[in-house]
Amino acid sequence: MAEFKLDGRMKVKTLKANFKKEFGASLRVYKSESCKGAFADDDATLAALRAEGKKGGELTVGGNLRVGNFEKKIAELYGIGVQVANADDSKLADNDITLVAAGKQ
What we know:
single chain; two-stranded antiparallel ribbon; two-stranded antiparallel sheet; 4 strands
């Protein structure tokens, strides 16, 4: 079963690499929860990006989690936007499929 843990000490580039390794899908990480504007710096930690008032913490992500639910959990925990994309990062994954399925598109 594909899964990994993330927490505030994790850097953006590590999050993206772990996500790709576990699920085969690409992950786009933004500075804002709305996913508008600039991508987050690869060397920034999730805690450094965390929006004011968000608690952060640890999250275990399993492969059967739906794309939309994963994106929502990251926004709730850290106040940052993420978008799951297919393996070659050419198009965004449908919110109703699992993370594992997104890597197979």
